[in-house]
User: Fold this.
Amino acid sequence: MPRIHTLRLPLSNLSLFSSQSQKPRLNNNYRTMMNYTKAASSQAFKNKKLLFRQLFEKDSSTYTYLLADVAHPDKPALLIDPVDKTVDRDLSLVKELGLKLIYAINTHVHADHVTGTGLIKTKVPSVKSIISKASKSKADLLIEAGDKIHFGDLFLEVRATPGHTLGCVTYVTGDGSDQPQPRMAFTGDALLIRGCGRTDFQGGSAHQLYQSVHSQIFSLPKETLIYPAHDYRGFTVSTVGEETQYNPRLTKDEEMFKSIMENLNLPYPKMIDIAVPSNMVCGLQDLSVKPVDASSN
Amino acid sequence: MPRIHTLRLPLSNLSLFSSQSQKPRLNNNYRTMMNYTKAASSQAFKNKKLLFRQLFEKDSSTYTYLLADVAHPDKPALLIDPVDKTVDRDLSLVKELGLKLIYAINTHVHADHVTGTGLIKTKVPSVKSIISKASKSKADLLIEAGDKIHFGDLFLEVRATPGHTLGCVTYVTGDGSDQPQPRMAFTGDALLIRGCGRTDFQGGSAHQLYQSVHSQIFSLPKETLIYPAHDYRGFTVSTVGEETQYNPRLTKDEEMFKSIMENLNLPYPKMIDIAVPSNMVCGLQDLSVKPVDASSN
Assistant:
């Protein structure tokens, strides 16, 4: 059983690992893509809490996700996998929507683009960066399987999904009648739409990726929405049901999967030598504080 | 008052303009991004009918939208603004999701890419193409303001939004408790996220565009989701509330708007001489039948 940490940081005075228990407040058994400022006063939007936006960075085909609890008075928000180039766009949107950005989160140490988390922290110092402990990277909060990341009355659950890198995690919206339904899984590069991340760099392992996806993602309800870190063909979303049926790699048995992954013959990642060292320290190479463990990977 | 046409084509035997009245069947006062095959049997998905997918074509930054009524036994579906290059992707997805594609629809005669509607018809001959009568283009069905395009128990309402081109329309999901909430407006190039289409070609008019957006789109409920034909900065969706507050052009008065549009100094559209003649005939220039009115614009 994974150890359970609960990250519920007071919005006005951030501190780690408060033990305050989760108190469901509204019966919210459906999800919405949008829940606007005046939602709480509108019958049509009663109990709809999640504001969700998918954002795209074209050069690296990266998706950044903005999630916020707009039923909470502070409208606390988080960004998953922000990109350095699009930080200004993302922060403008956060401001326009009246949100309070509290977390900038990575699914893993990206090799194809520089994360925006460090840059965000220079512009909004109260934002806390989050990455997995297993990534051996520097961030304000290092999370592990079973941890929960709370924003208002909503939360993300952390699932360890190594294989593309050693430290890959998948963030899944909470289970429960007060959380968005269907659930949403932010899979990073572990599971892509009809594909998956490569396994030939950064401690990658086809065996490990196969086990991760099958045990941690395919075990979710079929209607769970899959939001990956990238798509190169213009898809924006998939579901567990679709990927278990149509993913051309992960529907195979493990031996076949490993054979596919060993024979991809992909070029050396063109950004890896810039992106990985930078992303080990939240995208800022010139941080004055030497990153913990950054030299060991 | 716009004349009301009702397009409710029997799925097995398509014919025009049946007068069958709309009969709300389910109390579906919320929307979902995804409603999977077994939805009807699941308590969590009861009454959720709309399957919705946003798809992106990177070269022209075009969004194609797939909508289907998955509570209907036939799972009837339509595509809005398909692109020729991505037709195989779109049709594969339709097939994998078990949908029956009945319409391929354009918001207008595009100048920046070739529509996929003609190509779709060569691959799935039962699909009917749709465009506005005002576009003076060739299609199976020519629609006007007030028409309704039914797919299963769901429908799109047609609103005339000229100004980018003479024949631009916006498709809005139906009003009513049995239709998706919030409503969704597919605005083509009339209204973009924090922008709008240019008005210096194809019968464009800044005056007309300003009037169109204010009277036909900004008059929708604030929570209405805006899904444009393009985005160049990585946004995927906006709302009427956001655009009435933050659109840098359309929040100005009309004189200022016209001045902005007259001074954009945009380059000549690089695809226009290929795309427009082709799109006047559903993207197929070599159709044996001479298109109606295609030579007049």
